[in-house]
Prior knowledge:
By secondary structure, the protein is of the alpha/beta class. Helix content is 39%, strand content 13%. It has helices spanning 35-47, 62-72, 92-106, 122-139, 152-158, 194-197, 200-209, 213-223, 235-240, 251-258, 271-274, and strands at 11-13, 22-24, 28-29, 52-54, 80-85, 113-116, 145-148, 169-173, 187-190, 227-228. The chain has an eight-stranded parallel beta sheet. The protein starts with 10 loop residues before the first strand and ends with a helix.
Amino acid sequence: MTTSKLTLASTVEVPNSRAPLRRPNIGFGVYQSPPGVCKQSCLAALQFGYRQIDSAQYYENEAEVGEAVRESGIPREEVFITTKVMSPCGSVEKTLERCRQSVKEIGLGYVDLFLIHTPSSGPEGRKELWQALEKLLEEGGTKAIGVSNYGIRHLEEMKTYSTTMPVSNQVETYCRILQEEWYPSRSVLPSCTGKFLDDPTITKLANEHNVTPAQVLIRWILQHEYILLPKSDNPRRIKENTDVYHFELSLSEMEVLDAMDLGIKGAIVPQNTECP
């Protein structure tokens, strides 16, 4: 991908999917967006040009995501919808039914990507979750399946019980935890708290480009060619997070940000990828 030609409409091919599937390079996250707010935030995001929304059973706002897409008037096939299952239900069939409920609750006929939210349920739980998602894929409830917060050993473990490998591993990423080795195709959740946005290195780059520190980090992630899922319930910031296509970080600037990587020590939630 030539990053200088990136736009909000840019998409990437989803690898290993059974049918051709493309995914926008930037999406809208709804973690901690309460049901009463989530729908309006999603409508704002769609109005500003987002065409991907990332939800989860754990977020308890899947229904509002679906409502927003329907009310937006945007054709279903133009919006990429992701959701996630957190925990196994005791059997593959019970877990499958829980995933079917998510698809029904979203109310758009299918989801584009269904992920295992975390590897924290242990080897047997992870196997049950994956086998349920494989069945959902066969049924047409989702177009692709993947994982989230998986470490290398969790991905290697999957080879012992499945030939269907995840199309993506959604992980925490920002300049203190790059995690480039964890999966060749992934989507990322930028974990940038205020103290990181105030970092002198980041603020210096922001001032030089006349943008915000958050925009610098969003652009940095996009230039690494990862799919990005920023989150906000503030309409101004929702729009601001997409206003990153008028500037480009130089190679030396990218290297400066890359050098801030602390590996797993930089993670805000290292217990996810480190769990047994």
